[in-house]
Amino acid sequence: MDEALAALCRERRSAEIDRHYEAYRSVPLDAPDAWGDIESFLSARREM
């Protein structure tokens, strides 16, 4: 019973996290915001 409950909790938590990240997936990496854009940040980070 404990294992089944733990598995259910992990699955539900994983689905909850995926839902929260969906907002980030819907925005292109090169979309600017108040701090710049993620694509430029990642590019600069790779060059370090």
Describe this structure in words.
The model has no long low-confidence stretch (mean pLDDT 87). 71% of the residues lie in helices and 0% in strands. The protein has one domain (2-47). The termini are far apart. The chain is elongated. The protein is an all-alpha fold and 48 residues long.
Provide keyphrases for this structure:
single chain, about 50 residues, mainly alpha, 2 helices, elongated
Taken together, the total number of domains comes to 1
Largest sheet: none
Mass-distribution shape: elongated
| β-strand amount | under 5%
Q: Write the element-wise H/E pattern from the N-terminal end onward.
A: HH
* Head-to-tail CA distance between termini: 49 Å
**Residue-averaged pLDDT:** 87
- Helix tally equals 2
In short:
This protein is mainly α and 48 residues long. It has helices spanning 2-25, 38-47.
